[in-house]
Design goal:
Strand content of chain A: 15-25%
InterPro entries (chains A, B): Aa-tRNA-synt_II, aa-tRNA-synth_II, aa-tRNA-synth_II/BPL/LPL, Asp-tRNA-ligase_1, Asp-tRNA-ligase_1_N, Asp/Asn-tRNA-synth_IIb, GAD-like_sf, NA-bd_OB-fold
Shape of chain A: globular
Radius of gyration of chain A: 29 Å
CATH architecture of the largest domain in chain A: 2-Layer Sandwich
Helix content of chain A: 25-40%
Strand order of the largest sheet of chain A: 6-10-11-23-22-21-18-12
Oligomer: homodimer
Number of strands of chain A: 23
Family (chains A, B): Belongs to the class-II aminoacyl-tRNA synthetase family. Type 1 subfamily.
Organism (chains A, B): Galendromus occidentalis
Largest sheet of chain A: 8 strands, mixed
Number of domains of chain A: 3
Largest interface: A-B, 156 and 156 residues
GO molecular function, one term (chains A, B): aspartate-tRNA ligase activity
Protein name (chains A, B): Aspartate--tRNA ligase, mitochondrial
């Protein structure tokens, strides 16, 4: 089931509780030509002379609307002043000087901060004519995202993009202030030009002029540097860090993104989770409930996922008693589970059921069935003959799945998440935005791929739980880690862990358990031997967090200049083929630029030299 | 003359006025195993039980010194506790629990915040043994920079690096708070993966998997994006932005650096300079005098440079009256200038004179001479026969230069700057650190290269002074710009300007005056036509500013993990050759990785495919 896009107009929730005062600063008009922003002129200013600068939103004989990034003010013009702007198209830039007066009776607008007043202009200047706009800012919803990204500077003028970006700036500043001023963190900027990490296929390579045929790699995260900072006595580090990942065309990812990156010495998992929870509460615009802690195992059992959306009281149940015939012959490692869908009779369509069966099949299970009990007590279900009708409520829908435990849980996890979205869309007008954070803990340290090869469930620097170290050799899949995730409304917002500070243990896990070559990490292993304090840290994705806060349908709505789905900059066109001259300069001359073509054009063709 | 490196031990000036309270936060020990940092334990805590975590700095029967990033605490141990750490080398990590007591009479140390007390330990734990350090943190001065960078995590433990990084974090936070909370700026993160700009040979190319043979370029600055943000109604933007420049081996530059980047709509040059000055005063740890404004012309005339060090009252003077014989036959455009060097008789050695003559010759002038008037009134000078002795003071040194005006001024500018450094080093013990900011204004908009081709003095988006627009066609070199530089103690800290907001003027300057192809900037020109407000902005280098504040000899001393002189990461070794597999993945397969070599080794050899 595709993620439906919520209509944009309703997507500010916590943000909608913010008044325009949230974004106001005492000296926001100092050092500029204006005396007030276009949302600031109110009854308090009646009789005052003001200077406003902004975009012409609308004009008609005698009056005009002036818009800036904050709001709109109505301007009254006499005939000779009107002539000044008569030929100025909307979106031209004006400076208006005049006196604030109360609007005539019956013309006040309660929905605007400036709705009680208007400015009677005595001077008006066209600062720049708008000669050409591809669309009016208020029409952005009619445009495809491709057009919006190509002309992002128009899209940004809309009040929602303004609010998203300003909210992001405010919130990031609040994070910083708390970390630095309250908790004694030191913000350190770490390099992004670094060397490839083992297995770092997703790291963009960077060529340079001075070192032919050698490449920097853009860092995926400051992981190594933050551990080195702990070793270097910066005991509380954070950074709002730019990170890079060459993931190609993934719909809601960006090749560069922002991570709030934290590391601390002399801490436990408890310490880290408590700090993060206190921090989130301090910066969040609305009040938050306590963050529950849910073990990975429990989360999988109850929700069929390790990032459940806790806004919905939908729980996976054991269903052996619903399906006795199957239960009797259940093989080892198999289970029967059910998820009851209140309101499902109305909301769930046959295409959803088809979708869920297909998804389950991909997970390797055939046994997925719905049970619908009608108001008259009759049951509609492919497995009607196998079930006990009395176990179901009238007017109810239940999805039952059986087969290998993991696949059953994941299949019902998908049903749960899709149904939650149906619920959300069904109550769209009355939907009360809510933010349910939770911690997921007790993850396994390793997982095994299809060939039985062990992999780190998170990354190889994660410390095992002390109680499980003894099983590293004998039963590594049993080892639990000191990793924890922070989830919010069904998204994994971030993750953290206690790191390994013993070089012996780190070497053992890299070499013996994971079978990796340690040579590319010798600098880190040597650093652990030089007096590395016990340490741990956390990172969370700022783009996603702000997008959830703004209820934006995509992280692109909280990034000023995002790349499009396929990683391109649609405005200026990047990436782009380089000229042969540039290729030679950076020692990439072995690659011929596409012949006979304008090097500024973009094409994925191009010949290898040989 | 090479820039002498000031001894590092004396380089904290404004920073030295900061007490350790500057870096203290109310909850800096909350959510951690320690109760106090190692600088916090004072007479206030006598009788209290504390837990400290830190590095073993020194041990001897009965006592040990424990160090963390903040300070040092003395710990008293009984014999059995001593045995716990007996075999722990220095730089091992300990946790110490105990009671704070007053030091015995005569053992107090006034120079340490914790010098009145010690902690009588009742529990001590070795958290991690230090098995191997290449050097002790306090010995870093004996080490070459190459060693220090390779083992940066040890270097960072020294109190100066701690102070530099913590000061940088504090100061950056203060900048942010003022901009956001006081002046209404919105911090916006702009892309670093962008397309090459015309003539952008210094922009690192970035390959990717999804778009074969196309490259992003890492941005040198957010210039285009910040202008687009103004067009997009974010009327006050700033960003503490990572910027990239592939400059190869330049001694005090870094391939990635940090810029405080500011842009505002509806402002004048005056507005921008006033804001910046107010901002600098607000964040600077010591009080600052008013920033004088000096025109480019005046600065060249008085100081022979556009970034004079105003801590020294040394002024270039007209010297026609000193050298009448030459003055009589002075060609058009030539001049005679002099710089008096108080104390020069003692400080200036013959190697300096030789150096200055050589530099002058490179600038194209032969006429540079010293005039030394001894205490007995006699004069020693190569041009003794040409000068009038009475014009010179006894025990004085004067440098006289004549020839083409520009070259003469630049030659004396070098003399001035070198002599200032001699003065600084000569009074090293009594040198009172001072910070002299100034604005340089009225720059020419264009300069011409050796072939007479016009170039932008700064960048092509800089607006001309209104009064000079009329000369754009007829006499472009006469046109002054709305650009201004901020200088501090002889360094250019940053620069700003009013930008061009008219597409017609921008196109005229790009195409008609500079003869550039506009096609790669069409997106910006189109944006200017969509209602671009008048706007301007500023950017300053954070690394340099903090280095001057800390009186650090190099910007590398205020960067946690700098690259070395040649742009390499010495710790992990980057850049590095990629494996053939990685090259193929990123469509760089045309470049063969050096054959038969370990791909993790670094070498500048490597074969082009063909």
């Amino acid at each position: 089931m595709k993620q439906a896009r919520a209509p944009r107009c309703r997507y500010i929730s916590a943000a909608s509780k913010l008044t325009s005062d949230t974004f106001r600063s005492p000296n926001q008009n100092k050092f500029s030509e204006r005396t007030h922003a276009c949302d600031e002129v109110t009854v308090e200013h009646i009789g005052a002379r003001v200077t406003l600068c902004g975009w012409l939103l609308y004009k008609r004989m005698q009056f005009a609307l002036l818009r800036d990034g904050f709001g709109v003010t109505q301007v009254v013009l006499n005939e000779s002043l009107y002539r000044v702007i008569e030929n100025a198209p909307t979106e031209s830039i004006l400076r208006v000087e005049g006196i604030v007066v109360r609007r005539p009776d019956g013309q006040a607008r309660e929905d605007l901060p400036t709705g009680q007043v208007e400015v009677v202009a005595d001077e008006i200047t066209v600062l720049n004519l708008c000669k050409d706009v591809p669309f009016q800012p208020r029409e952005y919803q009619k445009k495809t995202e491709a057009v919006r990204l190509k002309y992002r500077y128009i899209d940004l003028r809309h009040e929602e993009m303004q609010r998203n970006l300003r909210l992001r700036s405010k919130m990031t500043n609040t994070f910083r202030r708390h970390l630095i001023e309250n908790y004694g963190f030191c913000e350190v900027e770490t390099p992004t030009l670094f060397r490839r990490t083992p297995g770092g296929a997703k790291e963009f390579p960077v060529a340079c002029h001075s070192h032919p045929h050698e490449f920097y790699s853009l860092t995926q995260s400051p992981q190594q540097f933050k551990q080195l900072l702990m070793i270097g006595s910066i005991d509380r580090y954070f950074q709002i860090a730019r990170c890079y990942r060459d993931e190609g065309a993934r719909p809601d990812r960006q090749p560069e993104f922002t991570q709030v990156d934290i590391e601390m010495s002399f801490v436990t998992m408890e310490n880290l989770m408590n700090l993060l929870e206190e921090l989130m509460r301090a910066v969040w615009p609305s009040s938050l409930q306590e963050f529950p802690r849910i073990s990975y195992h429990e989360s999988m059992e109850l929700y069929g996922t390790d990032k459940p959306d806790l806004r919905y009281d939908l729980f996976i149940e054991d269903a052996r008693n619903l399906l006795n015939a199957v239960a009797e012959n259940l093989p080892e490692g198999h289970c029967i589970k059910a998820l009851r869908l209140p309101g499902g009779v109305e909301l769930v369509k046959s295409r959803h059921l088809k979708d869920w069966r297909k998804a389950a099949k991909q997970l390797g299970i055939n046994g997925v069935s719905e049970v619908i009990k009608r108001g008259d007590g009759s049951v509609k279900s492919p497995i009607a003959s196998l079930i006990d009708n009395d176990q179901f409520l009238e007017n109810s829908m239940t999805i039952i799945a059986w087969g290998p435990q993991k696949a059953v849980l994941r299949a019902l996890g998908k049903v749960r998440s899709d149904f939650a979205q149906l619920l959300r869309l069904s109550i769209i007008s009355s939907f009360n935005p809510d933010f349910k954070f939770a911690w997921i803990t007790d993850f396994p340290l390793f997982s095994s791929d299809e060939n039985g090869k062990l992999e780190s469930e998170h990354h190889p620097f994660t410390a095992p739980h002390d109680d499980y170290v003894e099983f590293l050799d004998s039963d590594p899949l049993r080892v639990k880690s000191q990793h924890f995730d922070l989830i919010l409304n069904g998204w994994e917002i971030g993750g953290g862990s206690i790191r390994i500070h013993s070089s012996a243990l780190q070497r053992k896990i890299l070499a013996d358990v994971l079978g990796q070559d340690c040579s590319e990490l010798e600098h880190l292993l040597k650093a652990l031997d030089s007096g590395a304090p016990p340490h741990g840290g956390f990172a969370f994705g700022l783009d996603r967090l702000i997008a959830i806060l703004c209820e934006a349908p995509s992280i692109r709505d909280v990034i000023a200049f995002p790349k499009s789905h396929d990683g391109r900059d649609s405005m200026a066109n990047a990436p782009v083929a380089l000229t042969q001259e540039d290729l030679e300069y950076f020692h990439l001359g072995g690659l011929k630029s596409p012949e006979g073509r304008d090097p500024s054009g973009h094409s994925s063709s191009g010949n290898l030299a040989s």
